[in-house]
Design goal:
By secondary structure, the chain is mostly helical. 65% of the residues lie in helices and 1% in strands. Positively regulates primary cilium biogenesis. Also involved in autophagy since it is required for trafficking of ATG16L and the expansion of the autophagic compartment.
């Protein structure tokens, strides 16, 4: 063991006590600095300048080391002498002492600002003194690639123009643009094949050009050309989604009434569409069912529609399913199909959410604004379509699903009451009464309608209106008036009830009051055609001809082919002593009802008053041909033949008049006169 004194001496050799008489040694090392932060001579540092000149100041590769750059240099600390640190970038040391020469330390310099610039040049950090940048290289428009790009752009523009023309209704222009796009696209393919490999061909452009061309052929009813173009797409294996276009081909065959081929292509398209596109598959299956109905294959159609109703039920498929079961006479299946129809979800809120619950003006204005927006209109259209399908189906199956029409209709009413179409049950009951009217079973109609006297106001008003009309037809004005009052009191905003009330007042001769009811009906429904027509008649009775003509002309704009409206307008022009206009409107009328003898005789009379005997004879003769018992027409024709000295012809008409009215001696005398004119000396014999 080493002696303690020896050990102590060795330990004390490494201990350095601070001198007590020199206080400055306490702060030694504070003025030293790390040479890594020495930026004094960076502009002369080759490695640093090389790194600054590279893109975004990236470091040069490590392999570009300068020999000796990894050598150490002093590092100044407050606890010992300076030591050297190796450069992390493999460049020579830029700070500290190098080659025996130390360089001063500077502050961090701004980008673009150097000592050299300060010594001899102006401050120019953006390098503007170098002048403008060289101009961009001009695109070579003569290069093959640029020509191909321009041609491809032109093809796309032609396809877009074709689609826009089709949407605007100009089908001919759309087809011309589609054909031109096809020609340009073929030219593009020819040029591209010369300079690029085949795999660089733009298949999407070719597909869009062919599809647009086929669509435009189909829109212009050039079905053969459309099918040929679709075949080009379908048979090309490079078009991966071409198989779905067999749906379009099936649609064309359906329009051509080639139902077997339509079914074939629909089924081929169905095989190409995955189950992810459920809606598309349902539409194709619906088309298949319709095609089977067209060919009378109701069992196959039922299979398609049953699949649709089990996967994705809709109103049209449900109604078609009922039609198929009706065609094969299966009453029980009709009931099941009817229940499926009324269970189809409409995704429409049946509650009236636009009724204001307070008197807030702002809320009421907001509700009025959104009451007729596009979404509300869509909801009303869907509800109206559903009600139409259900009402039609009920009327169709009611007589055949039970022992009698009434029992069948009651079953339909009960089924509807159990669904969310509860309000429709009352309409079905009223429709039941209307059906009794068509069957001329007035007693049953009255009993059915009287059941609604204790229902809610809307249904009561509808039933009372029909009851009033029934009594009006039976000329029981007292009862008609009572039920008309009940209808109006139950629902003052029902235009049909107001019109019916006006009719009862009109029948009692109070035309002024009747006109007020008709105008009130029009305020509730400006397109109530019955109120417009009756208002015109009321003003005609009041001799307010101009106002009557205005309302009838407005009604004519709504119902341009209404024979009654055309006749009333012609009659008003006749009252206004404008025979030319009256004749013009009557000519329009006979284009609608060419065999009406009364209208033809009216035209003959107007032409006769105008002195045009030839036209008058033509229309009188046509009237006589359709109705040879009109005494006025017979008399005019007989007189016409006498005036034209064809007495033998006149005898035929006067003899017919004598057969119609044998008690009037006038016609026998006319026959005798004709004989006397045609054969002198024979008249007295005939008279005896």
């Amino acid at each position: 063991m080493m002696p303690f004194n020896t050990v102590y001496r060795k330990m004390m050799q490494n201990v350095h006590l601070a001198p007590e008489n020199d206080e400055d040694d306490l702060y030694s090392g504070y003025n030293d600095y790390n040479p890594m932060f020495d930026t004094e001579d960076l502009e002369n540092d080759v490695a640093f300048q090389q790194a600054a000149r590279t893109s975004y100041g990236r470091r040069p590769p490590v392999t570009a080391k300068i020999p000796g750059s990894a050598s150490s240099r002093p590092l100044a600390t407050g606890f010992g002498p300076k030591t050297t640190l190796p450069s992390s970038m493999g460049r020579p040391m830029t700070g500290g002492i190098q080659d025996g020469v130390s360089r001063p330390m500077t502050a961090v310099q701004a980008a673009g600002y150097t000592k050299a610039a300060m010594r001899g040049s102006s401050f120019d950090p953006l390098g503007q003194a170098r002048g403008p940048a060289p101009p961009l290289e001009k695109k070579n428009s003569d290069s093959p690639e640029e020509k191909l790009r321009q041609l491809e752009k032109k093809v796309n523009e032609l396809v877009e123009e074709s689609c826009v023309a089709n949407s605007c209704g100009d089908l001919k222009l759309a087809l011309e643009k589609a054909k031109e796009a096809g020609r340009q696209e073929r030219e593009l393919l020819r040029q591209r094949e010369q300079i690029t490999p085949p795999e660089n061909i733009n298949l999407d452009l070719t597909y869009s050009v062919l599809l647009n061309l086929a669509s435009q052929y189909a829109a212009n009813e050039m079905y053969a050309e459309a099918l040929t173009t679709y075949q080009v797409i379908v048979k090309n294996k490079m078009f991966t989604s071409g198989g779905i276009l067999k749906v379009n081909m099936g649609n064309i065959y359906l329009k051509q009434r080639n139902y077997s081929k339509a079914i074939k292509f629909y089924r081929m398209a169905l095989d190409q569409i995955t189950s992810a596109h459920k809606e598309m598959r349902m539409k194709i299956m619906e088309n298949i069912g319709v095609a089977f109905i067209k060919t009378g294959q109701y069992v196959d159609a039922i299979s398609s529609f049953e699949d649709i109703m089990s996967i994705s039920p809709n109103l049209k498929a449900g109604f078609n399913l009922i039609l198929c079961y009706f065609a094969i006479g299966n009453g029980e299946q009709m009931k099941k199909a009817f229940k499926k129809l009324i269970a189809v979800p409409l995704e429409v809120d049946f509650d009236d959410k636009y009724i204001s619950l307070n008197d807030d003006l702002h809320t009421n204005l907001l509700l009025e604004a959104i009451k007729n927006d596009s979404i509300s209109q869509m909801e009303r259209e869907r509800k109206s379509m559903a009600e139409e399908y259900i009402m039609t189906a009920a009327k169709l199956i009611a007589p055949v699903i039970e022992t009698s029409f009434a029992v069948g209709y009651d079953w339909c009413v009960d089924a509807v009451k159990a669904s969310h179409y509860v309000e429709l049950a009352n309409d079905l009951e009223i429709n039941k009464a209307t059906t009794y009217l068509r069957q001329q079973n007035f007693n049953q109609a009255l009993e059915t309608l009287k059941m609604f006297e204790k229902k809610d106001s809307r249904v009561k008003s509808a039933a009372a209106t029909n009851l009033s009309f029934l009594y009006y037809l039976g000329n029981e004005l007292a009862q008609a008036t009572n039920y008309a009052d009940l209808a109006v009191n139950s629902d003052r905003y029902n235009p049909a009830a107001l019109t019916n009330k006006g009719n009862t007042v009109f029948a009692n001769g109070d035309y002024e009051k009747a006109a007020e009811f008709y105008k009130e009906a029009l305020r509730n429904d400006s397109l109530c055609t019955e109120a417009l027509y009756n208002l015109g008649l009321a003003y005609k009775k009041l001799n307010r001809i101009d106002e009557a003509l205005d309302f009838l002309l407005k009604l004519h704009a709504i119902l341009p082919n209404s024979a009654q409206v055309l006749y009333q307008i012609a009659s008003i022009y006749e009252i206004m002593e404008d025979p030319n206009q009256a004749i013009e409107w009557l000519l329009q009328l006979i284009s609608v009802v060419p065999t009406d003898p009364h209208v033809l005789s009216k035209l003959g009379k107007l032409y006769d008053n105008e002195g045009d005997k030839s036209q008058a004879f033509h229309y009188y003769y046509e009237s006589y041909r359709y109705f040879p018992s009109n005494i006025e027409v017979i008399e005019w024709l007989g007189a016409y033949y006498i005036d034209t000295q064809f007495c033998e012809k006149a005898i035929e008409y006067f003899e017919r008049a004598a057969l119609i009215l044998p008690t009037q001696v006038k016609w026998q005398l006319m026959v005798a006169s004709c004989y006397r004119r045609s054969v002198p000396g024979q008249g007295a014999t005939v008279l005896n």
